[in-house]
Amino acid sequence: MVALTRRVPWVALMLALACSTAPPADWNDDAGEWWGDEYEGISDDADLEDAASRSRRMGASLDVLVDPDAAEGEQALRSLGASLRTEHSGARYRETRGGRAGAVEVFDEGPLQHLAIGFVRPSVGEGAILADARELGTPSARALSSAGVVRATPSSSRWGSVLGSGATISIAKTQASVAAWRPHDDDTTWTVWSGLERRFSRTRVGAAAGWTRRQPERDAASLTVVHALRSAIVCAEAGWAGGALAYAARAAAGDTWYAAFTGGGAGPATPTAARRGDRRTALVERRDRIGGVSTRVIGSTVVRRDGIEEDRQHRIEARVQSDIDDHARVDTSVRFVERATTELTSPLSQGHDERRGEWRARASLRTTERPSSSTSVEHQFRIDAVRERSSLGLAGTWRGKLRHGPVDVALEASAWGLEPGQTGYLGAGGLPGSGSFTTVSGGGSRLSCLVRGRFGAHVPRGRMGPQRFRRRNGSGRCLAPLVECRIAFDSRAYPLVACRLQGRGG
Amino acid sequence: MLAFAAADAGARIDFPSVADRTVGIRAGADGFGPEAPWSVETGDVELFGIAGLRVAGVRARGRMGAVPAGVSLAQLSSPVGTESRAEAELGYRPGVRWLCLARTGIEIVSITGAPAEQAVLAGFYSRAEAGRITAIADVDVISRADAREIEVEIGVVGRIGSASIIATTHFDGHAVASAGIAVVSRFAGRLALLAGYDDGTETIRGAAVVSLSRWRVGVGVFQHAVLGVSQGVTLTWSR
């Protein structure tokens, strides 16, 4: 009875939202698009860093994720997230049961190109010495625009981030950067990096130096060169850390092919120093588009040595995306991964060698239908297959979304038959702050429903909402408010309620 | 029931009968096609040559504009008891590209010498057309007193001329996932033949359907390597 009473306000809110007439907002929670350890890397900030905070437009958002059926003594609040973006500044904050994280940033303010304070993800050059910790499991090709000597990217997640600050000042063709940080749980290990970068006509040259205060103290240096050709760009970095050399190279030609190589000690943000032969990676990617068919082939290899152990991971993946017509699309992918671990206790011993292969394949069909101007229906039919340890596991997912006016209803049914050692990946349901995916194993099924209602104005691509929802801020720009509420029922995770207050300005 | 799949190259898997659940085959006629706004079908299947083990059912379907509806009754009879199922379904079909159906019903299992067990059924069916491909999802939720089962079936039908290839995957919600494949070919608009294999039930299927005016007669045979041969006949009247 108490639980029922607690839900009454939400039901009343949903009824109120159903009566409003705002057009549907973009709904980008493409559940089921992940293999968990996807090539792009795990983007656990994707839910929070919505369009309001990613774009340079003004915007603000507040996300609250509540578990109404939280157990006695358990916190009902699962996630609280907030982000604010003005023309030259931004802030983000996220609180979960795992902790709090947030950062403030200022950008493009006079000579100050970028300043970030709080939880940041530092990186240097091409990642030969210092790379984003989230990229360590899988090689990841960076965006070309991210070339720079020392970068401190703000984060609202504790995973892969450190506590510190970074700033970049740009004067004419010269750019100076400085960053300092420490781990969350260690206030004695500070790391400081500074860098200088100079742009020429088609070339950019940068140098950086870093120092870590811990026992033993370590220092490192890096030299980065970026050169643009007619239709390609080539980047290279050579580094020195702790007496070892490290290097990284990257090349890209248009959208057709892409390659990146890293050798030496690309390591997490802390500690900063590399060890000899720590990690070597290579990544090659090729994209093609022939008519309505897009293909993408990715091959990568990672070798990591630690004392007498050596881990190797080789991966090749092919994706094909084909448009059947204007309303339907087929996606197919296949990926093969081989992991090998070698342990050589002495040069004379035979050692221990363990190899494990796994392949995954998936096929999905997406369709879109618009029965009327205010109604649209989307479907996804998806089959996933995984083969590991000589047995085949399957998972099937159907997902349907019905959008009518301000209300969206999504229904998803998944079932899987996997071996105990196999892992399948399912979408998490599209609630902000709930994560991108969930893992399953063994056999089981899940039925989930997500209802989303909006109240206020939606701003699709630079167009402001109805006049009655507008308000003027100090600079005369519009800020369109948007209140959004999502209620999810999951046969495995039970009900969750998420509420988002969001506004975007032109 | 399998025979209806051959009659309709779309090979719908929308006949939620006891027979489907027992033999693991989900195949039926598309009673909501533009050519048949109303239909009544009845079927009888003898299972594995065991005396007294058979499935019989009847289903009526209709369509009022974009809203299809239907009811179905089916019973599995065996020497040790019966399993009866009644379902009603209501759907929405705004055009030719998409159809959804929600269904609810009740299932009663009576075994000699034991109290009858009752289960509440709910389900959802969705079918989307994309060019020469039809994708189908069928979700069954069976709520019993002590547990709830969710079964999911996803099927894809690809059409090449007068032939169709049907691939289905069935998940029983525990740890079993099975796949099936079938080929349907139609001749002269009145005769259709189906041949297929289902990995989950380990059965080889074969069916033939003859359409005459408003009547359609189908016969189907499926063989299990251990349990033996099952055979059935269905009769459909539509207008």
Detailed description of the structure:
The complex is a heterodimer of chains A (506) and B (239). Chain A has 506 residues and is mostly beta strands. Chain A has a domain at 98-275. Chain A is built from 2 helices and 27 strands. Chain A is globular, with a radius of gyration of 24 Å. Chain B has a single domain, classed as monomeric porin ompg (Porin), CATH 2.40.160.40. Chain B contains 2 helices and 14 strands; from the N terminus they run H-H-E-E-E-E-E-E-E-E-E-E-E-E-E-E. In chain B, strands 1-2-3-4-5-6-7-8-9-10-11-12-13-14 form a 14-stranded antiparallel barrel. Chain B is globular and about 55 Å long. Classes of the chains: A mainly beta (506), B mainly beta (239).
Descriptive key words:
heterodimer; A: mainly beta; 24-stranded antiparallel β-barrel; 2 helices; disordered N terminus; B: 239 residues; mainly beta; Porin; 14-stranded antiparallel β-barrel; 14 strands; globular
CATH architecture of chain B: Beta Barrel
CATH topology of chain B: Porin
Instruction: Provide the structure class of chain B.
Output: mainly beta
Which quaternary structure do these chains form? heterodimer
| Approximate helicity band of chain B | under 10%
Order of helices and strands of chain B: HHEEEEEEEEEEEEEE
Q: What's the Cα radius of gyration of chain A?
A: 24 Å
Give the low-confidence spans of chain B: 1-34
Biggest sheet features of chain B:
14 strands, antiparallel, barrel
Strand content of chain A is: over 45%
Which residues of chain A form runs of ≥5 with pLDDT under 50?
Answer: 1-54, 266-276, 459-478
Overall 3D geometry of chain B? globular
**Number of domain units of chain B:** 1
Look at the helices and sheets of chain A and give the structural class: mainly beta
Using DSSP, what is the number of strands of chain A? Answer: 27
* Largest interface: pair, residues per side: A-B, 36 and 34 residues
